[in-house]
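dumping this here so i dont lose it
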């Protein structure tokens, strides 16, 4: 599903070049749910941005769904319909209601929004479907973002600190729903998280350490 070999990524900081990822390798099997942990600044977002094609490795080989996407357009097509990225603050369009956000994302992916009502129901946000993002609580906004991510019917779900903006009680309510929805759909997921409860629900936990991934006992 995902095969990364010896990925390297550095940033220029003034005159200095700082290596963030160094010979990082990763294999994700179809349907596998993997958590990635590590301290702030260790390169977790950098890794996600390589996996969704928003940035390119300096070196190494990255294959998704069996091949290396040829160019920016190929990556953009994957992001529209096969690779969903869920951000900490949710990436909802502020001028659209929840229902329209969902229909818009589904439409971009060439999917029907027929399942939308059921999705909102399952995530317990059907009652706020006609509200705009700034009229939602943090937990509702996060669940709306989840609904949008699932609406594109991706094969790979990437999540960057999905509990980051939630209080503990809300995180405990929303995260089981998230992992359950991922598993029900047979999606492959890579979830960056500091939340032990969320990590514990995944099949494997990896730690990003000195630019590479090591298994976490
Ligand atoms: P994490 O997600 O684990 O907090 P990041 O991947 O965001 O880590 O960042 C890893 C390191 O790379 C940090 O030191 C950060 O300051 C640096 N970095 C990230 N993005 C850039 C960028 N666009 N330009 C320069 N440095 C960056
Ligand atoms: P295009 O230019 O062809 O519209 P984009 O790269 O702008 O392609 O967007 C393609 C898809 O990727 C869209 O569905 C959009 O929602 C999603 N997307 C855009 N920016 C990001 C981002 N920073 N993180 C995750 N997904 C993104």
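and the seq i came up w/
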């Amino acid at each position: 599903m995902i095969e990364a070999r010896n990925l390297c990524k550095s940033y220029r900081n003034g005159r200095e070049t700082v290596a963030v990822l160094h010979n990082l390798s990763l294999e994700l099997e179809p349907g596998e749910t993997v958590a990635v942990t590590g301290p702030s600044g260790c390169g977790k977002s950098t890794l996600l941005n390589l996996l969704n094609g928003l940035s390119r490795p300096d070196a190494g080989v990255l294959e998704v769904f069996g091949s290396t996407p040829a160019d920016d357009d190929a990556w953009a097509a994957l992001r529209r319909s096969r690779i969903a990225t869920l951000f900490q603050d949710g990436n909802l369009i502020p001028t659209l209601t929840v229902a329209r956000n969902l229909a818009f994302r589904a439409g971009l992916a060439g999917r029907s929004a027929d399942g939308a009502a059921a999705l909102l129901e399952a995530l317990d946000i059907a009652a706020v479907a006609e509200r705009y993002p700034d009229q939602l609580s943090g937990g509702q906004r996060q669940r709306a973002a989840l609904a949008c991510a699932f609406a594109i019917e991706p094969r790979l779900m990437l999540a960057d600190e999905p509990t980051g903006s939630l209080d503990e009680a809300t995180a405990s309510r929303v995260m089981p729903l998230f992992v359950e929805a991922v598993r029900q759909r047979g999606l492959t997921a890579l979830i960056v998280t500091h939340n032990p409860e969320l990590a514990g629900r995944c099949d494997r936990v990896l730690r990003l350490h000195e630019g590479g991934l090591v298994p976490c006992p």
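Residues 87 and 160 are 5 Å apart (CA to CA).
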